[in-house]
Amino acid sequence: MELWYTEEHTPTVRFSIKVRKHILSKKSPFQQIDVFDSEEFGRFFTLDGLMMVTEKDEFIYHEMIVHVPMASNLSIKKALVIGGGDGGTVRELTRYGAIEHVDMVDIDEMVVNICREYLPFTSSALGDARVHLHFEDGLKFIRSRENFYDLIIVDSTDPFGPGEGLFTREFYGNCHKALAENGILVNQHENPYYESYALSMQRAHSRIKEFFPVCGVYQAHIPTYPSGHWLFGFASKKIDPRGDLRADAWNALGITTRYYNTDLHAGAFMLPNYVKDLLNRA
Length: 282
Ligand code: SAM
What we know:
The strands form 2 sheets. The protein has a 7-stranded mixed beta sheet, sandwiched between helices. The chain is 30% helix and 32% strand. By secondary structure, the chain is α/β, with parallel strands linked by helices.
């Protein structure tokens, strides 16, 4: 008998991966958590039936969500990751010697425990002495923070279920307040290709724009996410991700990457016309 993991990307489009083994299935107070093994993508995990991380392509997402802001301001010392329970974002952040303090706030401790046990390739740096784990709603955590972080990364689920609050005006306003003068906010920004995702993307963009003078979008190709075309939001109080990129200085750090490089950094902000149009109309 064949076992397949199938995800609905739209009501009429499905994406499937042949499964070698369904390793774990658990329900937390917040969501359904599943871990699978597969031939093509290695180990992968899903929340509420939606793909979060695969062993084969997670490097693309985690490198792009971290190195684009880090290379835009090499003085970043204090970072906050909201969501990110698999640990991949924290892993990339801890590769920088300049990073002194990382708070990671995930609503669901069970996700973190499961990833520590079953996804060692993403969770390897969660025990780093600079990393502080908090298990609470990111929407609440951010309310009491002021003028503290150099970088906030929102590595969340989609804008429904527990992640809904992380796409609200209240949340983005509080992120602005929690950031220091040179602060940067990066968030996973959905895909522009399928209508329901594109609407979420437009909504997020128009809300972030209300608070941040610099507000852009960059892209990456992530094969296991809907449409494969994924966007990230880059907002800041003053840092310009292209103008402030110091490519030579970043390359001198000697951080080895498989997807990110400083040429691609600039190119990632060059968007197709239909995406520009969606953003202009947001
Ligand atoms: N790379 C992934 C993606 O875009 O599919 C996101 C991965 S990460 C596992 C998402 C994390 O966000 C989950 O661990 C989930 O528990 C967490 N999360 C969802 N809503 C949250 C909230 N309101 N506050 C903090 N963490 C939240």
